[in-house]
Write a structure and sequence with these properties.
The chain is α/β, with parallel strands linked by helices. It is 16% helix and 28% strand.
Length: 422
Amino acid sequence: MIKKEMIAMLLAGGQGSRLGVLTSNVAKPAVSFGGKYRIIDFPLSNCINSGVDTVGVLTQYQPLRLNSHIGIGIPWDLDRNYGGVTVLPPYEKNGNSEWYTGTANAIYQNLAYMEQYNPEYVLILSGDHIYKMDYQLMLDYHKAKNADVTIAAMPVPIEEASRFGIVITDENSNIKEFEEKPEKPRSNLASMGIYIFNWKVLKEALIKLKDQEACDFGKHIIPYCHEKSGNLFAYEYTGYWKDVGTLGSYWEANMELIDLVPVFNLYEDYWKIYTKNDAVPPQFVANNATIKKSIIGDGSEIYGEVYNSVIGSSVVIEEGAVVRDSIIMKDTVVGKNTTINKAIIAENVKIGDNVTIGVGDEVPNENFPKIYSFGIATVGEDSVIPDNVTIGKNTAISGITTNADYADNVLASGKSIIKAGE
């Protein structure tokens, strides 16, 4: 067997509950992004662009779409006889059947997968961040520092630092302290959830902490390795990186793609982002349609007006419809004379005629104020919105709704319609 220098383990089992109805039926890494991609395309593309050709993808929550999207890894050139991409769901073992209970527990349960490659280094990645990063440069840094563990870290505004694992380093970037989501952060250098471990160090720590409940990298493995050797280093990253864990950050990251000079460029030849492409026809734009500063996916038909929006593939926007500052995912139909302002509409949604979405005052959502905020109207996949209704801001809709679900044909700002079982 050819020994692999470094293999990657990509954690893609997350529920992404802060994305509300967008992740009711799909894992967060499988959520659409930028009109044609899914979030997991970014770390997978980073792997192959960095020369990492062996990737274990750990799935758990709603894995169906993720599995069919990844397949055997052809779009990323990861369909290899030895190595390539392998989807690793939890499985029944002799005597017990165990879900992954924490990030490190998920890796521990796949020791046998890693053993077969006997790598020198293991790269741990999250499947829910948008960024481009050369992991080979990080590995070179790890070797130069003769580190046991290297943590990719980046400066964040100090007021946001309590959301992250925070590292405190000396002048040589040696990590002196690591605090997981501290209430009063003493540094603004945040862990990006990207780690390179020496294989022997990782294996020893995973086995040692195997009985730790909900064993996690930030809470358990990193502090254990720090205490044991102190040979941990921070690799400071200064490029674009976005955790699209909230509706606001997800909406913002999509909108940044259509800036005149995008902060995050999807069109660079030397660092391509690969994805599974469905066989769909090209876009059709009618004579009287208007499109300004937008991304339009393949197979979409535009008869109305689209401004400052990201439209997925095979979307139909009928005559008289106006879409502004919105994300509309694949296979959705927007009816005639419908107006949509600052909304996120998931896949395969049917929106009727003469509907208005995203109007009124910005009232906090009465059930989930921390999720449905930022003034965004959110519609989950496979939903139906009937003709002639008006929907406010900070709203959520999931399921097949009828006019009877809307009092006087209105869903006021801050209200939700979530159909049972959906």
